[in-house]
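Thread title: Can someone regenerate the structure for this chain?

I was given the following input by a collaborator and told the matching structure tokens would be attached. They weren't. Posting the sequence so someone can regenerate them.
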Amino acid sequence: METVVNRKKSVLFVDDDETTRNLVSAILRHDGYEVNLAAKAADALSYLKSATPDLILSDVMMPDMDGFTFLKQLRSEPGTSNIPVILLTALGEADDLVQGLSLGADDYIRKPFVRSELLARVRSKIERPSVSSEMIPKDIKTGLLKPNLFAEAVARELFRSTSTGSEGFLVFLSLSELPVLQDRLAADSEAEIWKQTARILEPDLRPADQIGLGAGVTLGLLLPDTVGMTAHTFLSAAAKKIMNHTFVIGDEHLRLTPVFGYSNFISARSADELTDHAMTALDSAAINLDLQPSLYDPKMGSSSNRKKSGRDSSLGQWFKRIGETLNLSWQILLTILIGGVLPYLIYAWFDSLGYDLTYPVYILVTIALFITALLIWVEGFLALRAAEPPAEPKSPYPPASAIIAAYLPNEAPTILETVESFLRIDYPAPLQIILAYNTPHELPVEKNLQQIADRDPRFKLFKVEQSSSKAQNVNTALADVQGEFTGIFDADHHPDPDCFKRAWRWLSNGKDVVQGHCMVRNGDASWVSRLVAVEFEAIYAVSHPGRSILHKFGIFGGSNGYWKTDLLRKTRMHGFMLTEDIDSSIRIMTDGARIVSDPNLISRELAPTNLTALWHQRMRWAQGWHQVSMKHLMKALLSNNLTNRQKVGALWLLGWREVYPWISLQMFPIILYWIVKYGGLEKINWLVPIFVMTTLFTLSVAPGQAYFAYKLSHPEIHKHGKWFIFYFIVGSVFYTEFKNIIGRVAQIKELFKERHWKVTPRSAARSA
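Best answer:
Regenerated them for you:
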């Protein structure tokens, strides 16, 4: 539904005499007009570059540039040619009046003037502005097709498309921050924003494309004779251009978030239906705010049908669990068939032809396992050299923001404790703390959170309606972010009080993103949480900093990460990716951004406390990594922003991690083949030097990881020495292969487009 906003009409008054400026300004403001003043024509022209008034009132006799020259320049520029202009002057000769009117003046007032006459002429030209005949179909302030005429153009193009069978698209564009800006900026800000937006889009439009004002607060685009991929590519590029553009509105410089929804001509039978489809797609894109254009899908219109009761019957839940178990069992069996049985059959078939492939494959697998183990050791040794952040900056700390993303039903037991921990952060500049959350129903804890917001102005409660992902929560909250840099956190995190000061020491010295150390704070809850507690030390205290030194790039891990806000606004989180954090990391890395890992930038989180919760968490991670690898590996290898060393690192991180779970399985079909071929285990020479050496070296990885994790761990984890011994034993006999199975099954799930996101329970009671 279109929102009608009553606003003051604006007048730009140009006169070199200060007394006259003050008098006319007082008269117009008393009558309800918004008045902007300029002492000379050059100042007025400068103002008009960023604002479009409803009327210009100008003196004629001015120094440097007189009113006639000023008027001539106004009428020569498309952006100002249709603004009504009244000349105010002491020149009383008829020739002067004729000259002014011939140059395009809409009216003429002689000095000295009568107050009532001045107001009457101003009202007349604002309420009934004179425009050139060729511009009547267009909006005066923007130069764009008016909404009713744009709607007529939509109907014409749809009819033509139906007659010819050609594809085409109707696009609607909104700017996420515009409703808020309407209340804050000058009366003509919306028109000026749309005019600047049109200037960004027009150079890439074809002659047949049309642009105009849409229904409500939108801009419309017609893209006839366009195929789907072309439309998506054009709109994606347009979104980036708009996001990177600085809108100048008066004295303000703004960065705005574009939202594109579009619909194919062939999806609708009428112009009204096509418009409804495009607006529905726009609503969908407005939920995600990830700079991705949203194409209309019929499923978008059936959200009410999908809102079912959250209470399935006990029998229904039982059948669902049985189905998931059978499906998972089938997927694990399929990985065994692909990774184990199929290689064995291939070896047997080649053997029947007189070729034994197992020896060269055995050598390749051995080399692969050796290189993998070697690089893990190298990462460990390099982690010992992890650098401290630069010294504190001499300049004052800038304002900062924290976004806590939460799915509140899951986080309700712990969210108050989390918020209080953020309010204890010690930061010398303004710190804004935003809890961006979604919930399917009202919760009592929301009242408690509102009480905290009322008590402490640093904390803002931000409910994201219709959100279904962390990415949507973060993207939506960005509209309210005021800090120069922004920390992103999951809702179970308790950061150290000095975290923002430490992060800024990196960011103020050339880094774009800082990834901190996520440390488990419930390691004593169960054997699973103890295992994860040590594993996180191996990841955040060893692997991340070691890899950052080895490959010269870091990774944003989703929480306890600090971004320069401008980069975060440009990048966004993509909710259609299972690991939107890794996706955003690789996207900015291939664009040349610098991510650093700081093992002493601490935030404490909750680990899963049972094996089922851990399985679901790691399955999402593994499948998300696989999505990122398939999407970004080739882009990284072809990127002009990465060095050869970084490309090798990207190949290792995105390519090898996907291949390794299958390689780690290959010794089994090889040994089975040898057992069958040579008649038993005792016939195999197990003491071949290369086999013995590589086996021992590969097996050394588990104790090596445990050692480096212990040596570099945070004191809170370091004091539990038995946890590290437990990690070494469980990792050697179970956990490593557990993760390899997850890696293989994740690829099967992605192959069959099975992408179920399961919430990781936050409290020990809920997990149990």
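Residues 1-5, 302-313, 764-768 have pLDDT under 50 and may be disordered.
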